[in-house]
Amino acid sequence: MFGADRALNLVRLLDFPRPCGSEGEARAQEILSDEIRRLGLDPIHLEFSGWWIEPEHPILEFADGRIEVEPAVPLPFQAACPWMGGVGIEVEITGVLTEEDPGGTSSGIPLIALHDRFQPEAAVAPWSAPQLLLYPPAPELIPYAMLADPFVPSAYVPPEHARALRQAARPRATLSWRAKRGTRLFRNVVAKILGSALPHEVVVLGAHLDSFPGTVGASDNAAGCAVILEALRWFRSNPPERTVRFVWFTGEELDRRGSKEFVRRTAQSETICLFINSDGGFESETGPAWIRVPTEPMKAWVETWLQGAITIEVRSSDGDEESFQERQIPTFRVVGRSRQSAHLPTDLPEGIDPDKLAFMRRLIVEAAWQTSRAVARNRGGQ
Question: Would the pLDDT of 381 be above 50?
C-alpha cells in the first residue's frame, strides 16, 4: 500500500540544498541509507572518483592591501552547464567600487557593484563587471546568478570588511581567482532485491538525489527519491524473478556522472533490461502526467499492460535516462509538468501533489513488475 504521508515526509526531510559533492548531499545520502536499513536491507554506497574545481586565491586587492573573498557560484557547475560557456571560472577584473548604478557615467571604467542584501528580483547588477556581496552567504542566490544574462561573477566579502567597503570613496580594486582542478570522491546509494529466477538480468529504478545549487528541489527531485523508496518497499513484499536495483544517483544536475558510472559498472556483469526514471513533475495544479518511452515497440509494450487513459510519448529523454540510452538500454519515465521555467528556489515541499506521487509510483511499480517477471522479454524493440 502506497503511503502518501510517508512519501511526503521524506520530501520534507530532504528540504535543504543537496548539490552534487556538497555536505548537504552527503546528509541526504545518510537519510536515505537509514530508510533502506529500516526496510531490513543493507544500503550499498557505490563510490567513484570524478573531476572537481575549487577557487584558488580568491581575493579583492587594493593598492594598500587585500581581502580574501568567497566566490558565490560553485565553479564545477559553471564549468558543466552548457549555457555558462566557462565564464567566471577564472576571474581578474579591475574596477571601481560603487553601490548604485551610475547610469552610464563610468567613462568606460568597469564597475564593481556592492550589494547589501539578497533580492531575487535584483540578484545581479547587470551594469557591473563583478559584484561583491556584503550579506551572509545565501545559497538561493546561485540559480539566479547562473541564469542571469549577462553572467556577473559574484563573491562574498567577510562581514568584518563589509562596513569599510560601504564607506570607501569609490576606490579602485581588483577581484580575482584562479581555478584549481582536481578530483574527489562521489557516491550513489543503491539497494537490491535479488531475482529468484534470473538474478543476472536487472531492472533499474532510479532517481537523482542531488538538487540544483541553491535549491531544495522538492519536485526536482526529492519527490522522485520518495517514489523510488516506496517502490523498494513494495518489492520488499513482492519478490521479483529478475533482480531489481534501486539507485539514488549523484550528479544529475552537474553532468550525469552518477548514472554514467552506475551503467558502466553494472553493464560489465549484468544485463540491464530496463531503466525506470523518477525525475520531477510532481507539483500540484500543473495538469496530468504522461509516459515517455524511446521507441514505438516500447510504446506497444506499455499499452499491453497499461490500464486507464494516459498519453504515451515516444521521445528520447534528457537527465539520467541519457546514460542508459547511450548504451542502447530501454528507458521508461512518467513525466509531469512543472511550474518552474528553470531550477529555482520556489520548488518547495508544499507544492507537491500527493495524488501525483501515488499515481506516478503506481505506474513505475507496474512497469518494473512487468519487466521483472521471468516470462517477460527484454524491452527495447526486440
Answer: no
Owning domain of residue 41: 4-51+183-372
User: In angstroms, rounded to a whole number, what is the distance separating the alpha carbons of residues 241 and 214?
Assistant: 41
Q: Are residues 198 and 168 in the same domain?
A: no
- Asked whether residue 378 is domain-assigned, the answer is no
**φ, ψ (nearest 5 deg) of residue 366:** -65, -45
The answer on pLDDT for 205 being more than 90 is: yes
**Residue 376 confidence class, pLDDT cut points 50, 70, 90:** low
Co-location of 257 and 368 in the same domain: yes
pLDDT attached to residue 317: 85
Q: Check residue 97 and give left, alpha or beta (phi > 0: left; psi -120 to 50: alpha).
A: beta
Q: What is the mean pLDDT of the chain?
A: 93
Is residue 151 located within the same domain as residue 300?
no
Q: Which helix (H) or strand (E) holds 9?
A: helix 4-13
Q: Are 290 and 306 spatial neighbours (Cβ–Cβ below 8 Å)? A: no
> Three-state DSSP class for 299?
helix
Single out the residue of 221, 160, 229 nearest to residue 343, CA to CA: 221
Stretch 152-157: mean pLDDT: 96
Supply the DSSP string of 31-68, one letter for each residue.
HHHHHHHHTT---EEEEEEEEEEEEEEEEEEETTEEEE
CATH of the domain at 367: 3.40.630.10
| Angle subtended at Cα 304 by Cα 303 and Cα 308, rounded to the nearest 5 degrees | 55
**Are residues 195 and 306 located together in one domain of the fold?**
yes
pLDDT (tens digit per residue) in 240-256: 999 999 999 999 999 99
**Do 60 and 97 lie in a common domain?**
yes
Q: Domain holding 72: CATH number?
A: 3.50.30
Residues 126 and 147: their CA atoms lie apart, in Å, by 12
CA 210 to chain centre: 4
